[in-house]
Structure formats: structure tokens, C-alpha cells
Amino acid sequence: MKKILVSQCxxxxxxxxxxxxxxxxxxxxxxxxxxxxxxxxxxxxVFGGLPTPRADAQRIGDKVIARTGKDVTFEYMKGAHExxxxxxxxxxxxxxxKEKSPSCGSNxxxxxxxxxxxxxxxxxxxxxxxxxxxQVFSEEQLDQVELLLAEEV
Length: 153
Ligand code: SF4
Prior knowledge:
about 35% helix, 6 helices, single chain
């Protein structure tokens, strides 16, 4: 069975988000894939050694800066590499990653001003996954994941 890498906050379980909250996905298709054992949860920020909860952070160019002003680029990149390692280990079909996150966003991210402005862009883990040839979708694009899975059968 082909596996799918997913953001751990979408998968559910112990909270891993910066605000200590959960964003578990409830779409029946996602729940079915979870039940089948198809989903491989990853949290790049926790993999990078960051605590939960933690200061929110945003991408500014090639860097990731926390609201406190701390440069957390190293932690974000460390976690991104671990996500890629798991994607390769499980030879995933694709990834479903949480939109708007500075790690996991695949279409939209915040603009680095901490004023709530979204821009076109991708998170650090998604950028690295795509560089390594992994197809990435957001939780808003499950129709496309379904089509990809249908081609696999
Ligand atoms: S890094 Fe990704 S998986 Fe972890 S909490 Fe943020 S969006 Fe969710």
C-alpha cells in the first residue's frame, strides 16, 4: 500500500502546534486513509527540537524568525531534512501538509510581518520535499490526493 506523508497536527494525537492546540483533519477520506494505516505523520518543527507550545515564527526570505526575534532557521531546516528522510524511507506517494505554516504551508504562508498577511509561498519542509521530488498538497486539496490514489490502483 502506498503511504502518504502528513503533517502531524492534521493526523491528530498529542498537540504539536506552536499554540499547543490541535487541528486534526476530519474529512472522511483522510480518516479512511488514517484507518488504513496509509498516513505517516511528521512534525518538522518538533523534529527540529522545538518545544510545544513555542513562539510562532514566519519565513523571511531564506530565514525563519520567531515572533521573539530569535532565528530558528537551523531548527526548521533540521526538521525539514527529517521529514524528507521519512518520505524517502516510506517511498511516499505524496504529502498532505498543513496550509499557511512556515514549515508545512504548500501554497500560502504569512509574509514575515506578523500582521496576519498571507502571500503565495511554501514552508521550509515543503520546499525541501518538493526539491526531492515529493508531490505536496494541502489539507484543502484532498480531491487531488484522491485522484492520485485512484491512478495507483
Ligand atoms: S510544523 Fe507542520 S506538522 Fe508541525 S505543527 Fe506546524 S504545521 Fe503542524
